[in-house]
Amino acid sequence: MVSAQLLALILALLLIIINLLTKYRKKHQRLPPGSLGIPIIGQSLGLLQAMRANTGERWIKRRIKKYGPISKLSLFGQPTVFLTGPAANKFIFSSDLLTPQQPQSLARIIGGQNMMELVGADHKRIRGAVSYFLKPEILRKYVGKIDEEIRQHLRTNWVAHNRVKVSPSMKRLTFNVICSTIFGIEQGTMREVLVKEFNNMLAGMWAVPINLPFTHFHNSLKASRKVRKLLTELIEKKRSALQKGECSSHEDLITYLLSLGADKGQALTDNEILDNVVLLMIAGHDTTSIVLTFIVRQLANDPITYAEVLNEQEEIAKSKASGEALTWDDLLKMKYTWRVAQEILRTIPPLFGGFRRVIKDVEFGGYLIPKGWQVFWTTSTTHMDESIFREPENFNPARFENQSGIPPYCFIAFGAGPRICPGYEFAKTETLVGVHYLVTRFKWRLCSKDDTFVRDPMPSPKHGLPAQIELKTFL
């Protein structure tokens, strides 16, 4: 006969199992609608294919129509909840229950110690250091250097040429500026090798993280190792120069990060410096080059906007002596030009979307988002919402004349809240200087009737945006 104790034990185990199954069922029922799809792959390939065909916004709209503004799916190997709308943006960018979460592919390529992956005191420490170096008071000192780097690029790659591909030219320009200004890497062999491997690295950042020889992800990891090796050597050279007193702690961002907290025994590790240098190289390169490329495209197709930008920039040019560099005060006068740039960022945001990770079970909109899941947001859902921006398909820089009239958490090209992009002012400075010399020194017309673009994952004109150019006055 079965003893009473054994029966009691079996009964207790059954009750525990029933309780766990009930909790699981209730938890599962509270999850948002949608499907996680095929394990690991999920909906990643469908989203990436739509982005590359420039139908990503339509892919998102179909999803919202089918499931509503909150739904579950699987992206880049992780269970995910997709959220849309101003309230969702506020939750995503402000909640303490969410931390930055990049696709596994991106995190493995950049490194796990970059500020987008860190939380708490570590995030605050590194973000504070980077933000300090990129704030307006510091950037004022570098306007002249940015000015000279941009003029040098245009002298070399635009003057004496009657045709250029704008997109690759702007990518090289912004890479040169960030190398020189932020990292102190002057023109030469190292820059040439870096730019080649850097472009290879970018190709697989948004990819299914399967490391096989034929995949974009594999090639990006390979390029990342080469980039990191070069930057590690650079960091060692700068550390040696600092120790010998051959350079100052504020010479560039790397020397500043190397000096930070050294006197208090709180110095950043080499991996923290390296990962954040790679992150800033990517962020500083992509955003500004895309904005400049699509400003050139817009001005070629929009004579009214072109005339207003040209008038504003020529007024500034008239106040400068021949060869005199722009100053911070000159940039403050470029109000209309910056509104044009903001409207480009609204209609063609460089970043399609982003991710956060849930650190504990949280509810939003009546649904449960379990601990460990990632949250996915996109820029277009508010940028192109006609209830927020009237006639959103129309290009209208006047939208940004009164910034307070734009509801919070709706224009999110640089993010929002406490984690807004620390490089915002740097991108703005580089964009305004670039536009000044483009419109005051050159005329152009587009050579291809097809000036559409794809996302892979950043927006890029299909043919590189070829343009016929004419020099108006020497740089």
Structure characteristics:
475 residues; alpha+beta; 2 domains; oxidoreductase
Architecture overview:
The protein is an alpha+beta fold. It folds into two domains: 1-30; 34-471, Orthogonal Bundle (Cytochrome p450), CATH 1.10.630.10. 53% of the residues lie in helices and 11% in strands. The chain is built from 18 helices and twelve strands. The strands form four sheets. It has a five-stranded mixed beta sheet with strand order 1-2-8-5-3. α11 crosses α13 (270-301). The protein is globular and about 100 Å long. The mean pLDDT is 88.
Uncertain residue ranges: none
Q: How do the helices and strands follow one another from N- to C-terminus? A: HHHEEHEHHHHEHHHHHHHHEEEEHHEEEE
Structural class: alpha+beta
Portion in helices: 40-55%
- In what order do the strands lie side by side in the largest sheet? 1-2-8-5-3
Largest sheet: 5 strands, mixed
Computed CA radius of gyration, to the nearest angstrom: 25 Å
Number of domains: 2
Strand content: 5-15%
User: Separation of termini?
Assistant: 100 Å
Count of distinct strands: 12
Cofactor: heme
Protein name: Cytochrome P450
Organism: Dioscorea zingiberensis
Keywords: Heme, Iron, Membrane, Metal-binding, Monooxygenase, Oxidoreductase, Transmembrane, Transmembrane helix
Give a topology summary.
Elements: H1 4-29, H2 44-52, H3 56-67, E1 70-75, E2 78-83, H4 86-94, E3 98-100, H5 104-110, H6 120-134, H7 136-139, H8 143-157, E4 163-165, H9 166-181, H10 189-202, H11 216-243, H12 253-259, H13 270-301, H14 303-318, H15 328-332, H16 335-347, E5 353-358, E6 362-364, E7 367-369, E8 374-378, H17 380-383, H18 424-441, E9 442-446, E10 453-455, E11 459-461, E12 466-471
Parallel strand pairs: 2-8
Antiparallel strand pairs: 1-2, 3-5, 4-12, 5-8, 6-7, 9-12, 10-11
